Amino acid sequence: MQLIPVENIGMMGVNTDVPAWQLPPNVWSNSNNVRFDDLSVRKSQGLKEIFDSTTYSPMYLETYQSGNDTGTMWLSFSSSNIEIWDGSDWKDVTPNGGISKMDVDSPGQWQTTKLGSLVYATNGIDAPFYWEGDSGKKFEPLPNWTSQTEPPSPHKYGAVQTLAGFKSFLWAGNVFVDTDDVGSKPNRTFERSVYWSNMTNFYTPPQWDITLESDAGYYELLDSMGEVLHMQQLRESMMIYKSDSIIVSTFIGAPFMFTFQTIAPEIGVLCKNAVADFPGGHWFVGRSDCYINTGQTIETKLTNRVQSEMFKDIDGDYAVNTYCVTDWANNEIWTCYPSVGNSRPNRALIWNYKNDTFSFRDLFNKTSHIKYGVAPVQKGVQWGGDAAADPHEVGPFSSNYYTGNWDTSTDSWGTQSYDDTVEHLVWTETEGKQLQRHESGNLILGSTMKTSIERTGIDLGDPSTVKYVSAVYPKMWTSSANATFNVWTAHQMNTEDAVSWEGPKVFNPDTMNKISVRTSGKFFGIRMESNGDFDWLLSGLEWETATSGRRGSRVYT
User: Fold this and answer.
1) Mean pLDDT score across all residues of the chain
2) With 80 as the cut, is the pLDDT of residue 5 above it?
């Protein structure tokens, strides 16, 4: 018998496109609810409720940091309302004139941008809104947008599909224009046009008077037929993402203000919000792949890796509800999308841009949005005795005592947890009107999370010989002495054969060092599943094997 090690087992992540028998031994052929980092495989962490329940079902989140260091305020956008968490309570900041309803089970997303001290928002139905950053004030319709008298302008703008702040300008793309001076087709949407405002200061909404004497203007992007879906700054340029191309705009000053150049004539973005920043540029979702935009070149990322897994799974009717978010602390970008039969994202493709690995993660049935920001857990465990109290009771004099196992808890303890002072991903639980902070314990809504990793087609160094495997030795760490896993092993004689699974066998890494098996074949596999309130990490595998011969070769007829 000999031991054949598989090291650096989290180095290359998961690959679902290439046949398993063609993959290197440290690549996984399937996984769910795990992350690949530090050359290991680790269970994805759980969630913990933050703040009180929102009044309305949250569909989009934004953060705001005021200049007087009052902490991070959270804005929650629902189908027809906006509310703000000011540190103690949710306050309704919906515009007095109301908001047109965007149903949760319909295509469409909110989008926000910041310029100076102001927050701007659009739902793609109404004219844009803005907010001054004061929790005592409500959002208001963007001034000088639907009509302008000082100075006078013939244009009356309406709904906007995408907004972005760039330098001292506010940009709008895919704009409805109500005016009589656009030829024979008044009252129409200019899907391929972008508009920019006059230069504005830190505290004042911009003017939109498009005249020869002003800085404001617009440009029609007529190189392709696609509509403008998303705009986002990349270093010193504005990236304009259409459905079928990408244009870069650069500030040059008066009289032309901006230049426009197509950098990707045949690749566009799937929908608004499907773009995320990372140190190398932009990550964005296209019609059939995900890409990196460096500002000069476009690079495909999913082909021959996980392209089919994502794009065969995404729902065609509601793909426009896809969005991306960067988890800066973990060097990850989450692409959240609705799988077939779902209207809002319920699954995430996660790319670790530092290690260049992919993984998949389950979300809530309707995780309409995820935002990165500082979000202290204001409900939960406290120091104290051994009696549980009202879970809503918090503070230094709370009797809401912790009753769990101190050794296995993944919570941080102290006068204030450090986790409450740094950024995390915050999920919207749209159906439950809750916000949940990621990387908080091991549970989701009080329930355990099923995790799994799988690899088939491992030839153990020689695909032509028949091997006998007697044991598999996982190199594992767990946070609990009672942690158990269900483990299956598999074998194949030829790559064309169906995979034959045996198991499951229960494995406890704290009391056991191997999974005993008796199986023969040319190719082997392993599947490990956990479903408990504990953390775990897998750093390697060793296969105990002996050569049995060269039986079972292909038969050609």
Assistant:
1) 88
2) yes
Q: What are phi and psi of 490, to 5 degrees?
A: -140, 160
Among candidate residues 170, 155, 162, 160, the one with its CA nearest the CA of residue 209: 155
Rounded average pLDDT over 153-181 = 83
pLDDT in tens, 338-396: 999 999 999 999 999 999 999 999 999 999 999 999 988 765 444 444 444 444 444 33
Q: Is-contact 128 143, C-beta < 8 A?
A: no
Residue 22: CB atoms within 10 A of its CB come to: 10
Q: For residue 113, give the nearest of 24, 248, 232, 212 by alpha carbon.
A: 232
- For residues 410 and 457, what is the distance between their CA atoms, to the nearest angstrom? 35
φ and ψ at residue 414, rounded to 5 degrees: 155, -175
- Sheet of 523-530: strands edge to edge? 30-32, 451-458, 523-530, 485-492, 500-507
Q: Which DSSP string corresponds to 181-238?
A: -STT--SEEEEEEEEE-----SSSPPP---STTSS-EEEE--SSSPPEEEEEEETTEE
116, with CB counted inside 10 A (0-12, 13-18, 19+), is: middle
Give the domain ranges of the chain: 2-37+449-549, 110-270, 273-358
**DSSP one-letter code for 314:** B
- For the domain with range 2-37+449-549, which CATH number is right: 2.170.120, 2.60.120, 1.10.8, 1.10.490? 2.60.120
* 63 and 131 Cβ atoms separated by less than 8 Å: no
All residues at 6 or more sequence positions from 438 whose CB lies less than 8 Å from its CB, including other chains: 45, 47, 327, 424, 425, 426, 427
